[in-house]
Amino acid sequence: MESTKPNPEWDASEHSEAIDAFESGLGELTYRVWGADWCGDCQSCLPDFFAALEAAGVEDERVHVYEVDDDKNGELTEEYDVTLIPTIVVERADEEVARFEEKEDLPAADYLARRLFESDALA
Predict the structure, then answer these.
(1) CATH number for the segment(s) 14-118
(2) Rounded to an integer, what distance in angstroms lies between the CA atom of residue 81 and that of residue 88?
(3) What are the domain boundaries of the chain?
(4) What is the Cα–Cα distance from 85 to 39, expressed in whole angstroms?
(5) What is the pLDDT of residues 24-47, one digit of tens each?
(6) Burial, 98: exposed, middle or buried (Cβ in 10 Å; 0-12, 13-18, 19+)?
């Protein structure tokens, strides 16, 4: 998906909490991302999220991307109850510790960082 290419203009210095959270989870957290290039929310949200993962040094094998069709059907959508896109699920030891769906008041990386710190998933 084109929308998973990191935004080269994303400024990591403005998102230090997200970088810290993702760095703290290196080797332990897995990111599952559902989206589609036809989705405007995905186009606006995912490049910055992937830039955050890149800035934090998250390994490629820790990131799984699932493209969905216009009915929001795709790999593992039922198993993870994906009904909105983008959906980003963060797991630790195969247990969900944070979820971002479609739109929030914060960018996806910042939103997930807060959820990770609040849930003590990084302890």
Answers:
(1) 3.40.30.10
(2) 11
(3) 14-118
(4) 8
(5) 999 999 999 999 999 999 999 999
(6) buried
